[in-house]
Design a protein that fits this description.
The chain is mainly beta and 113 residues long. The chain has 1 helix and 10 strands.
Length: 113
Amino acid sequence: CEVSFSLDRETLTRVKRAASVLGHTEMSLSVVNDVLQLSVIDQNDKTSNVFSIDVDGEYKDPNFNFVFNIANLKMVDDDYRVDISSKLISHFVNEISGIQYWVALEKTSTYGE
């Protein structure tokens, strides 16, 4: 994996709630000022409102923008360790219960460009 981060229950809930309020269907993960940032976005409307939250994690190359369809994040609300590959697949692992999800990223995702 090229990027790993922690996604706690509260952050996951806030992202889903923001997407509902804003009417957006996508979440992006990128580096902003050397910090990993999750953002609820509308890629088709660059002037739309955006909700962003910083997350703890590690990355090899800061030049990426991984995009998730929020509809694909229908999972048990809990804390996850998320690993993302530049091959546009992510692995959500709950280290306590052992629940795992493999979630595909959108084709608009970029890495190393």
